[in-house]
Amino acid sequence: MLADTVQSIIWRGDHVAILDQRLLPTREVYLECRTCEEVATAIRTLAVRGAPAIGIAAAMGLALAGCTSDVDTPDELIRRVHAAAEQLLHTRPTAVNLQWALTRMLRHCHTTPDATVASMRQMLIDEALRIQHEDIENNRMLGRTGAHLISDGATVMTICNTGSLATGGFGTALGVIRAAAAEGKRVTVVACETRPLLQGSRLTAWELRCNRIPYLLITDSMAAWYMRTHRVDLVIAGADRIAANGDVANKIGTYGLAVLAAAHQVPFVIAAPCATFDLTIESADGIPLEERSADEVRTMAGISIAPSDAPVWNPAFDIVPHSYIHAIITERGIIHPPFQVAIQNLCS
User: Which residue, among 136, 233, 116, 236, has the nearest Cα to 176 in the 3D structure?
Assistant: First the structure.
C-alpha cells in the first residue's frame, strides 16, 4: 500500500472500514465496524487516531447509527443520533475535530423539517462523506500553502504522525513536507519516535518510506542533542486543538520540541486545518488534556518493560504556548503573531 493513496477510513455502505493503525507497519488490516459502538471503540483504542481522522470516523459512526437504528419517524431517528453523538463525543476529549464533526452532522438533522427517515439517513451518509472529501482537499491546500516555508535542502524535524493516516488523506504537517517534496525540493525529515505508542516510528516512518522522502528516525530524548550537533531548519507539528489565543494542544512531547527549537533558534510551526481552532476556549487553561492507561507506558507491543505495579503518569497531550510558535499554517493561509487577532480574522 502506498501512503499517498492510503485511505484510513472508508464508508462501505453497511459498515465503516478502518485501517487498524495499532498493527502498522507490520500488518495492514481493516476493521469492519458495523455499529456506532464499534466505531467508538476504534477511536477510543487508537485503531484510528489523528484529530482530522477522528472527526471523520465519528461522522461516519453517526451515519452508521442512523442507518442501523430501527425507528419509524424522523423524531425517533434524531433522538437515536443524538444519543450516538453523546457516546462518540466522550471517546477522546482533547481533539476538537471530533466535536466539530459531530456538531456539523447534528446540525443537518435539524435543518430538514420535511425529511423522511430514509432521506435523513442518506443525508447523514452524504454529510459524512462530504466532511472526508473536504478534509482531503483542505489538506492539499494547506500543504501547498506551507511548502514555501521549506527551502530546498532543508532538514525538518517532526513528531507523532500527521500524514494520510491521521487525516482524510494527504496530511497536515506531513502534508506540508510532502508538498515541498512534490515541488522538487530536497527535504530530509527527522522523525521523533513519539513515546509511548511510537506513532512517529511506526506510522510516520512508514509513510515517509512509502513516499520515498528521506528520513532519519530518532528517539524523543535525542532531539535536543540532534539540534545542537546537526542542522535543523524547521520544526513542524500538527495540532489537536488550538485556543483563541494560539495556544496549541498536541501529542505529548510537542511542548518539549517547541522549547528546544526556541533554545536553538529554530522556527517552530504548526500545521492544522481551520476546524482545529476552538474559539470558545480563550487559552490553554480551558483545553481538556486526555490521560490514558498506565499500561501504555508499562508495556510495549504486549511486552512488559516496567514493573507491573509501577506508578505511571500518562498524559496523551501537552500544550505549546503561543509565544513559542513562529507561524500556524492552514488551508486559508499562514498566520503569524499576534495570534489573537490573526485567528479571529482567519475564522471569521
Answer: 236
CATH architecture of the domain with residue range 146-347 = 3-Layer(aba) Sandwich (3.40)
What does the alpha-carbon distance between residue 170 and residue 143 come to, in Å, rounded to a whole number?
Answer: 8
pLDDT, tens digit (0-9, with 9 covering 90-100), for 304-327: 999 999 999 999 999 999 999 999
Predicted model pTM: 0.93
- Report residue 346 as a C-alpha cell: 482567519
| Type and span of the H or E element at 187 | strand 187-192
Task: Look at the block and give the residue holding cell 476493521.
Answer: 31
Q: What cell does 324 get?
A: 513559542
Tell me what percent of the residues of the chain surpass a pLDDT of 90: 89
Q: Which residues are identified as catalytic?
A: 240
Assigned C-alpha cell, 299? 508495556
Residue 4 is predicted with a pLDDT of 52
Taking CA 236 as the corner, what is the angle to CA 230 and CA 238, rounded to the nearest 5 degrees? 150
CATH of domain 9-140: 1.20.120.420
Model confidence at 95, pLDDT cuts 50, 70, 90, reads confident
